[in-house]
Every structure is written in structure tokens, then in C-alpha cells.
Amino acid sequence: MTILPRIIFLVGLTACQTKPITQQTTASPTLKHAQALLALGEFEQAFPLYLSLAKQGQAMAQFSTGLFFRNGWARTADEKQACHWFKHAAHNKIITAQHFFAQCLEQGISSHPKPEQAIHWYIQAAQQGHTISWCDAARLRLHLSPQTADLSLLNACQNVAQSGNQHAQFSLGQLYLIQQSKQFNPALALQWLESSASSGHLPAYLPTATLYFEAPPEQASGKPSAENLAKSYLWLTATVKRATHPDTLHKAETMLQSVNQLMPSGWRPKLDLVIEQHLKSVNSQTVSTK
Questions:
Q1: Tell me, what's the pLDDT at 181?
Q2: Can you give the pTM of this predicted structure?
Q3: Domain ranges of the chain
């Protein structure tokens, strides 16, 4: 129980960030003790220390207390309590807390949804270095004002995607699929979703395959082009091999059956080699980050 809690905690602190949290870097002895207990997986002993410091206004303790309630560490998960503490930590300029608090406001966890306030906090987080928040702000703005949205948010998200951030690439692809928006562009959506998928971002696999499979058919045959069939097979097979969510698996397997009915079986050996190489690359990346 020494490594996993530490990883979970650090992921919670720095999820989707491009620079580390720097606020309140001088930790009190009590906070250091709480952090040491958490790293050892001693949740029951760590929690009252964090809670006491959080009530005293210690920003990192407020954020950590929110994580306890968000993740259900040694207690029943409580989203409202998590949002309560993320709110305090956000006002005390903890970057990831600002992003989490924006999610609370967007989802209406503590009251009714407050999308405009959520956008404000996404932007606050993004401006301090949680750059993926630009994409959440852009997504929410496009949903609220699909015809008159501020393109500066979309451009900011695109800048993050262009830096190679697979999460931003996925989010940007999804943004271009908002049909009510003037920015609706399936071709650009496919470009960014496939970039994300090629980097190993699993959530991008199925949308990428779907766009290839549902692309306009060839006029002569009325069927998907050879390239679109092959790409559909690649990403659907990769999805089946990596996904664990039942709904995702069902959708991928069902679509893959349709692809296999249309695609010549002689294509599979070469395509399977491409899939194998991709999965090896993803696995090596996963190992190198552990």
C-alpha cells in the first residue's frame, strides 16, 4: 500500500497540468505528516489531519480533503462535500481545484448547473497552467452559444492540441462534432481524434473508427472506400483489444462485424500487424511512465 496511494494522490494533484502546483510550497509539519500517511495508504489517520488544516484555511489541505470525498478514500464518496472543499481551494488558487470546481458548477452538483461560472473557473485554471481547461471552456461556450461562440477559447484549445497533448486533441475533435455550431467540421474532427488515438488515447479510438465507417460511401459501389474500411478495422480492433467498458465493447464489436462483412479477409494479416505495433507502442509508453 505504499506506491498506489502516492500515485493516486499525485495524479489528483496534477491531472492534465503542464506545470506543477507552486502555491504554498512550504508545508507545515502537520501537512507533511498527513502527506506521509496518505502515501502509506493510512487514509483513516491522514483524513482528520487534512480536515483540520482545511478548516484553518490551508489551501492544499482543502484540495486534498476534496480528493478524499471525491475518491471515497476510507469513507463513502460524497460529491457535494468534494465540491465544497474544491471551491475553497479554488478561491485559494489551487490550479487543479479550480478545474474540479468548474466541473462541479457545470454539472450542478451542489445546486443547479451554472455554466457561465463554470467557464470562468475553467479559464482561471487554464490561465494558471491547467491548459486542458481551455478545451472544457471552449466546449461549454460552444454548447451555450453555438452560433456566436468566442473563438478565442477554441483557438486556445487548438494551441494545446498542437503541442501534442492527446487529451486536448481528443477534446478538440469532439468540439468539431457539435452539429449546432458554426465550427462543425467532421474532417477536422477526424484529424484531431485520430491524432489522439495514434498517441494511445483510448477514448479517441471508437469515435475515430465511427467517423471512418460512417464517411460518405463511394458513388460507384455505395460502400465505404478501401481506406475507410481499413481504418475502421484498425481502430475498432484496437478498441476491442484495449477497452473494458461494456458499452464501448458492444458498440465496437457490433460495428466490427459490419466491417468484416464488407472487408476482404485477405487484408487482415497486414492490418493486424499494424494494430500489434500500435499496441506495443502504447504498452511501452505506459511502462515508461510508471
A1: 86
A2: 0.83
A3: 201-212+223-272
